[in-house]
Amino acid sequence: MKQKVELINKSIGASILISLGCYVLLKVGNPIGPVLFALGLLGVCYMGLNLFTGKCGFFIQDKIKFTDLMIILAVNLIAGYLCGLIYSFADNEVFNNAVAKVATWEFSLSFFIKSVMCGVIMYIAVFMYKKGSPLGIIFGIPLFIFSGFQHCIANIITLGVARTMDLSIIICILGNFAGSLLMWYVSKDYVKKEV
Question: Per CATH, is 2-194 categorized as 3.30.565.10?
């Protein structure tokens, strides 16, 4: 029971940190927002918190139970949405920017591919952190944002800010998972030796 509580608490903490990145991105936009967003993932990694997109590519090699991974995802989604909802009442400009952003999302192959590519970047960023370098996070987070790639936890937070829901979140989750697992698979022999 204590382990589950810790799992949930660390997942809530990760959602809060990523929500700060989403808020600043919606508030100030490019080019500063994507750079500042990186603080969220840096905090998650250095504090040892549970972010689905940072864990899903490593759950096999790190022997994370699939049920625990799904708990992390569920908590990230719920806590992230609630953080976004709170922000929506704090700043009308952020709310309007979130509504405009969500209006561009679609349940499509293009959106799925953008989600896969974000998963690839997230795997590389966390892998580099595990190797002792924060550069994967510092460069990777702005890279996926500037490229228009889609991150499911950032997206659920943005949906919360916009006070809505969209089916694109489903393909975003699947795409992030697929991209992370793809990178694990193609590099697993090297990762097994070095990490």
Answer: no
